[in-house]
Amino acid sequence: MLQILGKASSINVRKVVWTCAELQIPFERQDWGSGFRSTDTPEFTALNPNALVPVIDDEGFVVWESNTIIRYLANRENAIHLYPAEAKARAWVDQWMDWQASDFNKSWGYAFMSLVRKKATHQDPEALEQGCREWTRHMAILDRQLDKTGAYVSGSEFSLADIPIGLSVNRWFETPLTHPDFPAVSAYYERLSERTGFRLHGRNGTP
């Protein structure tokens, strides 16, 4: 059975378990990370030298990096409804997954650490204000894209890209900051909430 190493509250672990829900892949999850078994051990770094969750062990095949993991699982299951085989359609999915992992993630890092994690190292008022502006700017980019597609981030149908993006949108709504009105994002959030996997692993009160 597929083994998932990482605590359930991790946004990146939730990408993997939500993907498993979409693909009906049975798995066993082990709690690793802050508050649980330490990832800074020879046992764990032998699996992932970065000492980060998630890691999967698929009968001896070990993979880390959450977006790589969910791509692998979609490919393993030949889930072309989530991760298209056609080059242009796949590129649209990949570009939004990569945007989430780089630009979007960076935009909410400071504000999230300040307002949710309450980190003492993230309490500078000017940096927090700038972080909130950057997060809002990226949410505006997403709102325009969703307004354009009228449905999901890469087009009219739910795709693998909506898993990392959807979890980041959940983080936006669960973080106590001023939320400008983004109608397309709000409609998207409700649309995602029709999916069992998102209700279990996304819109579940865990930012």
Automatic annotation (TrEMBL):
Pfam families: GST_C, GST_N_2
Domain (GST C-terminal): residue spans on this chain: 86-207
InterPro entries membership: Glutathione-S-Trfase_C-like (IPR010987), Glutathione-S-Trfase_C_sf (IPR036282), Glutathione_S-Trfase (IPR040079), Glutathione_S-Trfase_N (IPR004045), GST_C (IPR004046), Thioredoxin-like_sf (IPR036249)
UniProt signal peptide: none
Matching SUPFAM superfamilies: GST C-terminal domain-like, Thioredoxin-like
Residue stretches making up the GST N-terminal domain: 1-81
Top-level taxon of origin: Bacteria
PROSITE patterns according to UniProt: GST_CTER, GST_NTER
Name of the molecule in the record: Glutathione S-transferase
Organism: Pseudomonas promysalinigenes
